[in-house]
Amino acid sequence: MEPKEVDLKIPLLELTDKPIINNGDRFSVGRESCISLKLHGTFNLSYQFEKVTDSNLINKYRELKNISANREDIVNSLEKIIKKTPSSNSWTNWDYQNGGYSYSDTRYGSPMDKIKVNDDGLYYMWIKAYKSGLKTVYGVSLIDNLGTIVPLEGISLSSNYDIRVGDERKLDLEYKPTQASNREVTWESEDKSIATVDSEGRVKGIKAGSTKIIAISKDGNKRATTVVNVTEKGNIYAGSSDNGKVVNDSLNNKQNVNNTNQGGANNKETIISANDKDNTTAKGRLPQTGESLIIISSLLVIGLATIFGIRIYNKNFKGI
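Predicted structure:
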């Protein structure tokens, strides 16, 4: 049994007389005011709910709802973008009110005292029926449980973010007000050779440099910009000092602590710095040759700078 594609011009709901139903509408409040079935000669009806996940459909529906109270106008505008068949085969039997129906009269049913979906959102209400010859036909209605539409007043990002080449992080976009209904945005990177950004606002560092990342609201009226600074990995400097200047300023210059102490350089200090923009240093006197060492590595986070330091202790020396 193949489903028949719904002719949306008769209208969106082929099986009922209301194309859009509000959550809480009743099927069985009386013959004059209930939602009536439109197809004659059908039997074995069933129904199911399916939450609408298509943001384009939801936003279009909200837009039309704001400018028109005529539901037929809304239906005609949505007919090309709504689904034609349900995603699930899970159906609930529809029992007619009074337990019967007439082939010559428009019928009204009561699958429940009133329409009820549990969560906020826009829903399809699918209705399935069989006609003579065991043909399957489907009808669909939209169940509106979206609640009050809260306009988006603005969006914002932190002024800058720091990441390393190859790393990723999701940018934290703030909405004003926080309960704004339209939270859909697009993301752009001014220089994709430095950093890229995906549709979820996740940035990836490509090469060292800085670039702007821009978030734009769906209507294009709200924008937020941040600067992403990308640095090379392993940009940590270590070396010995000579009158406050870094002498060995690269981790590539491999340094042996014991060799540093040989030759009488007993009063030199070790300086460890994250990069040339961060002058935070860790200092300590190296013990003399022959003294035993305890080496403890530590990871410090100061502001946005991450510093990997090595503290050197002489287990017999308490002055450090």
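Summary: Residues 55-67 form the longest helix (13 residues).
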